[in-house]
Specification:
Number of domains: 4
Oligomer: single chain
Pfam family, one: AcetylCoA_hyd_C
Largest sheet: 10 strands, mixed
Helix content: 25-40%
InterPro entries: AcetylCoA_hyd_C (IPR026888), AcetylCoA_hyd_C_sf (IPR038460), ActCoA_hydro (IPR046433), NagB/RpiA_transferase-like (IPR037171)
Radius of gyration: 29 Å
CATH superfamily of the largest domain: Acetyl-CoA hydrolase/transferase C-terminal domain
Strand content: 5-15%
Shape: globular
GO biological process, one term: acetate metabolic process
Keywords: Hydrolase
Distance between the termini: 84 Å
GO molecular function: acetate CoA-transferase activity; hydrolase activity
CATH architecture of the largest domain: 3-Layer(aba) Sandwich
Amino acid sequence: MTGQNGVFFDDAQLCVDQVIERVGKQITLGLPLGLGKPLRFANALYERAKSDPEIQLHIVTALSLLAPQGGSSLEKRFLDPFVRRLYGSIPELAYARDVMANRLPANVRVSEFFFKAGSYLNNRSQQQNYVCTNYTHAVRDLMAQGVNVVGQLVAPGEPHGYPGMVSLSCNPDLSLDILPELRAREQQGVPVATVAEVNTKLPWFGHDAAIAADQFDMFLASADTEYPLFSAPQMAISPADHLIGFYASSLLKDGGTLQVGIGALGASLVHNAILRHKHNDEWRAVYDHLDVASRFPVAEACGGTGRFEEGLYGCSEMMVDGFLYLLQEGILKREVFDDADLQDLINRTLISQTPSLMMLDTLVQEGIIASPLRARDLRWLVKYGILKDSVELKGGCLHFGEGSVADADLSLEQTRELLEREGLGDRLRGGILMHGGFYVGPEAFYQALRELPPEQRDKICMTSVNFINHLYDHRFGNQRLKAAQRVHGRFINSTMMYTINGAAVSDGLDDGRVVSGVGGQYNFVSMAHELPGARSILALRATRVSGGEVVSNIVFNYAHCTIARHLRDIVITEYGIADLRGQPDEEVILRLIRIADSRFQAGLLKQAKKAGKVRADFRLPPEWQGNTPSSVRTALSFAGEGDWFPPFPFGRDFTDEELRLGKALKGLKAGTATPRGKLVTLLQALKVKDESGRYAALIERMGLTNPGDMKARLDRKLVIYGLQQLDPKPTEDEKSSDAS
């Protein structure tokens, strides 16, 4: 049917018909990053292209989400029940699955500017079609690809009291800027189509994310579009991750600004910030044991150790679920306002959040309002809650709700008495605690967003990534406003490797293959160098396992970089903090070696000396040489009794059985990473038995209780062997006791 704001469909095929009628069969489809893809419409259009070779379909997007599929038979047995439980009711993104399987038809091409990390390393078509761009340039580059159709998942306004509106909710990041660009293209005579797929399970967010429904040409809404949202399960936080997050939490400035990314390192930071705020004694015990203040002075100079009394403000391209936990724990509580003059006065502590006569005097002294008040002054004061809505200005006099009247001259005693008694508001209003560009997370996060009280929901502004990720003027705020809001910015992101001359390797490999993408990392790093008092913090684990061997992530050099060395700032591993900004090369190298795993420090130092970058007589100080995994566990233990650093502080989607099986399979994968390891593991597994039925429940979970063929029988033995490796090894006394 035809409605006020466009054409409504309850059938995706009819919607596709209308799109083709409008733009023809040369279609470049722009889809949001991550969660906001309209799955029913996207699948219907893709299936139409598969069945009609005359259609030329080019999909341009980022982060196409798919449920995981195991590679080996054991991985499949482990994942299949989990995937059915979490994703069984969610439509699968058909083009993305075909991309993974290398079975796209010849008339369909998919270009992405950001991948799920590692998902397309061995996919030639995606490596070739990858578009390298900063997040803030994505709209420009998508338009350059010739986008003529945009699809978006939206939340309807009617159930929330906003008829004629829709919320871009999880993805206003690019859509707020690409929709006007598309309309401009339409004005030039190019046929375009905008399609909104309606899903009431999508949390409603207002402010910038709420737009007029007539910005879309078509709506797809039916029972089929009411599917659950794609969830990203919580990842386990290892002891190393916890200590990285601990160090990062010591760099947070009370009253500051926070940006943080997804993953275990981001979750660890949030957990440690909460620990610092709620259980400060335990947090301080670890801080003191590590002697952070003297070993890493930047923490004391730029961070803090106390509770977050003023609180933090979130400004992050991705609103991770951690921001919700910070809100719930009373840490995310520093409000910012969309007026630079007002924000500046708050920053300078010339005014508070509570309206008063002194606040009015300050506003007059600073030239923000005049006395006597003008109409525009009153509108401004009412907008921010400084004066009540009932106050009116008529004929040069202020009229109050109780019928009282006074001159608009704020210096007159009668006016001041009436203002204090009847005119002042209770608290500044319009403040925002969180600016986010997009979100994706676990189902519990989505549910919590749906259940937010109105007053908390109104403190979250989902908005354009071009407002968030750089300082240039934008229609939602200029450079002065952004700088005023983002005081003491801490922009915290992860990287894969870091060279000892200060370059970060975050998105690709030295053979040119793309692991993920630049995303917004460059934006935040560069912004940290522009904003007064801001710091960029790049976090990484000191080591990784590659080919069955432990290797260092702090490297001498690498033939690819994401962040160039002239932007080096703060780097964190589980072994400490390297403050690199403004330091000479030798000092940069030594500070990075200091936080490297001790198994690799001597080799890195030797390479640096050979290159002439470190003086020949330098020797590793003994206190640097204790960077071992056991020292990490020891440090965390100083928090005292209790599980202060759990692997899943914010809940989990895996069952206890699945967690244990996951550890066993991870051990098997590591043990079979080399040909020799594979042979040894197989030989050992062939010997194992479980005659007592100790692992019966776990074997049943893997579907191996009654293995039907040789492969299944071998899988069963491998699982038992992997589980046995998790069991504590008996002591010599226990062995002797068993023998007797």
